[in-house]
Amino acid sequence: YEMWTDRNFVLATVAQNGSALYHASAELRFAREVVLAAVAQYGGALQYALGGLRADREVALAAVAQYGRALGYAADELRNDREVVLAAVKQNGRALECASEQLRGDREVVLEAVGQTGMALKYAAEELRGDRELALERPVVSVSFGATGCFLLGGGADPDEDGCRDCDGLGDHDDGQMFEAYAIMTTDRRYRRLWEAFCTWGP
Prior knowledge:
With 203 residues, this protein is of the alpha+beta class. The protein is 35% helix and 9% strand. The chain has 10 helices and 4 strands, in the order ααααααααααββββ. A 4-stranded antiparallel β-sheet has the order 3-2-1-4, with no helix packed on it. Helix 1 packs parallel to helix 3, helix 3 runs parallel beside helix 4 and helix 4 packs parallel to helix 6. The longest helix has 10 residues. The C terminus is likely disordered.
């Protein structure tokens, strides 16, 4: 449609709905001003940018500040840019999944991500997933209930040496069912089971 080639119309539209960048003409998806307006409203609109705009640092920073996981649409070099990645994980800790392998092994970056959501820890480099301080930041408890009992898959509940725990009154569950929840620490670092309203059950 002709209206999607009209710069003023597209600018006004993406300022209200960044995803509308998808409908813009190719010429306008190359336009830095248009793309900046779109990602400022919805960071995920970065996926519709053309040319070198996904590698434009200012555009990427604007996108991840609004929607951290827009990091996944940025050019590879920006997914290895510490400032861009830090901005992304501050907005959404799960954006750590989209960071370069090098930055997933950066302790400060991982700490920032885990501080935003404990679920980010699973995206950290293997050597950091067992880091006690990171686990204490905002630990995630993930346990699998099966015929042989409960097995701790993620930090936060003082498991015994082999990682096994009893169900501890949580009830009987079918084999293979999963229960995931956040375990929040008190300021003196004693573990308390203050379960948030977040749980997932699956086969």
